[in-house]
Amino acid sequence: MRNGFRLKQSIPKNTRSSSLLKSHIQLGLFISVPLFILCISGFLITYNSLWTGVLKQDATSEQTLPYSVSQPSHWLSQLSNAQQIWPDAELVSVSKPRSKPNKGQQAETDKPQDLVYSIQFDEHQGVWLREADRISMNYQQGTIESVIKHSDRPLSAKIASFVRPLHDGLYMPASYVMLITLVSLIGTLILSFSVVTFYRRTFSRKKAS
């Protein structure tokens, strides 16, 4: 492959199977590394039980110092209180963790669960992920339950926090989103070459015989 590699053969000159095969191989070499990253991150998202336990290590590094209490069920007061902890940071998003209902157990309808929102900040300019720093806020009580910076996370938790953004570009720079979009388009083009070649070698031979 090294001796027969030609950059101009990445784009097929014609619709012959030999030309499509060369383009298939060479384009596959160009996107092999980012495609491998997308495949691994997609596997970890699908089977998230393999790595979500790693995030529980955050509890050892989360700051549990007493913070000022905000007004209960008051968004403006709670966001202002969170911003005062990191005044130089940029508030990126506010999200609520998904709760999965337990089918085997009866839900306690008389005792509603507290809404604990995660407020993401961007304070470290050197961090590629834009939701690296996080504050957990209890909406009903107005109390801050945890404060964690990306730099305070253990290495395993830092790697785990990048799994989904590496796959779908969530909160990632526009350059990375363009990269994975280009890889997807090239992968679709490579797949079309394989489909054409497979059709010719399978059905054309049957017709000829």
Describe the model.
The protein is α+β, with helices and mostly antiparallel strands and 209 residues long. The chain contains 6 helices and 4 strands. The protein has a 4-stranded antiparallel beta sheet with strand order 1-2-3-4, with helices on one face. Helix 1 runs antiparallel to helix 6 (174-208). The chain is elongated, with a radius of gyration of 25 Å. The two termini are 33 Å apart.
Descriptive keywords:
209 residues; 4 strands; four-stranded antiparallel sheet; single chain
Chart the SSEs and their pairings.
Blueprint: H1 17-30, H2 32-46, H3 75-85, E1 90-95, E2 116-122, E3 133-138, E4 143-148, H4 155-160, H5 163-168, H6 174-208
Antiparallel strand pairs: 1-2, 2-3, 3-4
Helix pairs in contact: 1-6
